[in-house]
């Protein structure tokens, strides 16, 4: 079986970086959401997908990306359960990123061509190998 997801969309806000403890170790984790447009018979709609990056990928994502960046994300789907205010837990899906690639920066002052040239020099942001045992929850 295969659990592989490849998505592209725009960041809805700057990634949030936090540090979690796992025994004596500290692990970086970054959360961000990408907006992905889709087309239906009724018109255009947008899906919002939560993405999580771990360790060095999390640090690079948080220091490099910002709201409006167009990115592609390669990763896997991971379900998680969230406690609601009314009591029952609900199941949500998030993408655990293995690779994040910048496709374009937000357009600002007509500098899009210059920005595209700068992006060609940037390597993809790729996660180092991560064991499930390293994740603190």
Question: How would you describe the oligomerization state of the chains in this entry?
Answer: single chain
**Neighbour order of strands in the largest sheet:** 1-3-4-6-5
Task: Compute the number of helices.
Answer: 2
CATH third-level topology: OB fold (Dihydrolipoamide Acetyltransferase, E2P)
Proportion of helical residues: 10-25%
Summarize the biggest pleated sheet.
5 strands, mixed, barrel
Query: Which structural class best describes the helix and strand composition?
Result: mainly beta
Order of helices and strands: EEEEHEEHE
Cα radius of gyration in angstroms: 16 Å
Count of separate structural domains = 1
Low-confidence stretches: none
What is the 3D form? globular
What proportion of the residues form beta strands (DSSP E)? over 45%
Fold and architecture overview:
With 137 residues, the protein is mainly beta. It has one domain (5-126): Beta Barrel (OB fold (Dihydrolipoamide Acetyltransferase, E2P)). It is 14% helix and 54% strand. The protein has helices at 55-64, 112-120; strands at 5-11, 16-22, 25-40, 43-54, 70-83, 89-104, 125-126. It has a five-stranded mixed beta barrel. The longest helix has 10 residues, at 55-64. The model has no long low-confidence stretch (mean pLDDT 84).
């Amino acid at each position: 079986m295969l659990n592989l997801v490849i998505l592209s969309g725009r960041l809805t806000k700057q990634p949030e970086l936090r540090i979690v403890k796992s025994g004596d170790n500290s692990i970086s984790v970054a959360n961000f959401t990408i907006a992905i447009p889709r087309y239906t018979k009724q018109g255009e709609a947008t899906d919002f997908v939560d993405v999580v990056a771990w360790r060095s990928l999390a640090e690079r994502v948080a220091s490099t990306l910002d709201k409006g960046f167009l990115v592609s994300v390669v990763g896997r789907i991971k379900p998680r359960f969230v406690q609601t205010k009314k009591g029952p837990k609900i199941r949500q899906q998030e993408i655990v990123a293995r690779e994040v690639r910048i496709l374009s920066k937000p357009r600002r002052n007509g500098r899009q061509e210059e920005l595209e040239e700068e992006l060609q020099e940037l390597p993809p942001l790729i996660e180092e190998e991560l064991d499930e045992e390293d994740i603190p929850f």
